[in-house]
Target: DUF403 domain-containing protein
Amino acid sequence: MLSRVAERLYWMARYIERTENTARMVTAFNHLALDMPYQTRVSWAGLVSITGSDAIFEERYSEYNEANVVKFLLGDPANPGSILNALTSARENVRTTRDRVPTEVWETVNELHLYARFNLDAGEGKRGRYRYLSQIRSRCQQITGMLAGTMSHDHAYDLIKAGRNLERADMTSRLLDVGAVGLLSRGKDADEDASPFEGLLWINILKSLSAFQMYRQHVRRRVNATDVLRFLVQDPEFPRSISHALAEVEHSLANLPRNDIPLRMAMQVKRHAVDSQVDKLLEPKELHRFIDDLQKEMAELHGLVAETWFRLDKAA
Model:
């Protein structure tokens, strides 16, 4: 397999996962905005911060309000992480590797891209937003299922699986970092206490990852910060926990040739998540510091994957 083909398959999986995660995030935040009391302001800026696109947003918009943030995350051409841009990139990566993926996958990705583009106006409006995001989310899951069920689990699939799970771990970490502390704006009164809504905020984070039902089944305790963090960072069974996603990355890389350096890095970043002391993460600035270190390690892992398998053609 050519290194440029490997790179496109890896990025196709990341873009599909990014699309699904963004759709989940906007849907859950809409629910949070409806559930919060009228007098409590919910900050839309938190959604942009999760994606790390604050600078791009502020160049194009003067205010962090619902209309601007939703437009930016769903279809703004200047936002490389918007749903429409991610799907455009995923479609191009699949189109140029059609001989390596099942025909049904190419057709489904193409149909999803067309749906997202031609129904964007409905998605940006309040009335059609839920249906639009639900369609995108379910079609992304369909693509993931088709790849798992109809594609040979060879090196090409290992790269797809590695890309998908690394993107998933990254988004979970971003939701924990920004969502837990940045979604609720304190308003004009500096003494305003957000603690009555803490449970609602953590429930929103669980729902952003479709984790609420599994949390209630396996943790069986009232939603609280410590248990949610432990579940989403360290649970070995839940597919969207950081530890589980990184374990899947490690397993995928273990099947690839010349894997010594990236595999060691994958094991290191997974160990960082598994061995973290969750109780201490709730101390001031500790959660942000932990997530920041984890994201740097995941970025380094991505760089090693690219250096090992994607740059061979360019070096030749």
